């Protein structure tokens, strides 16, 4: 159950308000073995993320959900330097070496790779690995931002202008999307649940989970083109998606985006390529 971990994270968060980019990271590498998704959970996740028919293989993002309890266990320790409350998922990179099925027995592990300064606070990078019979079959690298004042930080270069891609679909997002995805994923960060809890942490309304937005985009890509068995995905979460709201899925070739209803604000920008990087692991 994740509820005790969420409570522990909430209690410890006030003690971690000003993390340092040079703070030590926990050396723990929590692990789960013989992990197999239940058909009911896989079906609920797939439907919520927009797969129109039950996928024959696990969605590209699904191991992230299976490993979320491990990430929570790590991020709610006293030695993890960032506060759990208000953490914002800013990017994810996924490498899948082969298609996975519900019959695969997965060994999952998570570890904290490094901290880095950010113009709005401090980011932590968490790496997740999934293995079958000792062989790595799926990896991800996620960055999480703890927002705080950075008076000593030097301003970075201005963001590169990115042109919106051609629109392919429009989605209406309900106000309870964050609660529904939280129930499936276990990620019940208050910024996703209700307007009040989001406002307490600096957002005008509840915001959609970044992992839902990328999963929804990848489900649409799968519907239109199919997903290669070996695949590499990188996605940056650029602007919060407020709930309720209307968003536009845009794509061209390997690139995809999630835009606002007017097509002017890019909420998410990503790419999906066949095959894996030469290193075989996320950057």
What does this structure look like?
By secondary structure, the chain is of the alpha+beta class. It is built from seven helices and ten strands. The protein has helices spanning 3-12, 39-48, 62-66, 68-75, 177-185, 195-200, 210-225; strands at 31-35, 88-96, 106-118, 121-132, 135-147, 167-173, 231-237, 245-252, 255-260, 266-274. Helix 2 (39-48) runs antiparallel to helix 5.
> Mean pLDDT, rounded to whole units?
89
Helix segment count? 7
What series of H and E elements makes up the topology? HEHHHEEEEEHHHEEEE
What's the alpha carbon Rg, rounded to whole Å? 18 Å
Count of individual beta strands:
10
Which stretches of 5+ consecutive residues score pLDDT under 50? 279-283
Task: Summarize this structure briefly.
The chain has 283 residues and is of the alpha+beta class. It is 23% helix and 31% strand.
Topology record:
Elements: H1 3-12, E1 31-35, H2 39-48, H3 62-66, H4 68-75, E2 88-96, E3 106-118, E4 121-132, E5 135-147, E6 167-173, H5 177-185, H6 195-200, H7 210-225, E7 231-237, E8 245-252, E9 255-260, E10 266-274
Antiparallel strand pairs: 1-3, 2-5, 2-7, 3-4, 4-5, 6-8, 7-10, 8-9, 9-10
Helix pairs in contact: 2-5
């Amino acid at each position: 159950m994740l509820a005790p971990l969420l409570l522990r994270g909430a209690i410890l968060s006030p003690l971690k308000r000003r993390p340092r980019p040079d703070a030590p990271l926990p050396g723990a590498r929590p692990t789960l073995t013989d992990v197999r998704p239940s058909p009911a959970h896989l079906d609920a996740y797939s439907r919520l993320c927009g797969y129109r028919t039950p996928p024959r293989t696990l969605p590209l993002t699904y191991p992230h959900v299976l490993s979320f309890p491990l990430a929570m266990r790590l991020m709610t320790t006293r030695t993890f330097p960032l506060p759990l409350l208000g953490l914002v998922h800013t990017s994810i990179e996924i490498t899948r070496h082969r298609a996975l099925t519900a019959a695969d027995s997965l060994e999952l592990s998570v570890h904290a790779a490094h901290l880095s300064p950010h113009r709005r606070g401090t980011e932590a990078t968490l790496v997740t690995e999934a293995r079958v019979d000792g062989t790595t079959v799926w990896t991800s690298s996620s960055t999480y931002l703890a927002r705080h004042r950075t008076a000593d930080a030097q301003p970075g270069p201005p963001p590169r202008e990115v042109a919106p891609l051609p629109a392919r679909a429009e989605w209406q997002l309900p106000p309870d999307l964050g609660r529904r995805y939280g129930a499936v994923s276990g990620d019940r960060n208050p910024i996703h649940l209700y307007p009040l809890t989001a406002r307490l942490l600096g957002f005008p309304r509840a915001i959609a989970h970044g992992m839902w937005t990328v999963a929804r985009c990848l489900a649409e890509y799968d519907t239109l083109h199919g997903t290669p068995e070996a695949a590499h995905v990188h996605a940056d979460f650029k602007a919060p998606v407020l709930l309720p709201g209307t968003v536009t899925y845009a794509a061209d070739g390997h690139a995809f985006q999630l835009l606002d209803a007017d097509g002017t604000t890019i909420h998410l920008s990503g790419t999906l390529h066949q095959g894996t990087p030469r290193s075989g692991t996320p950057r």
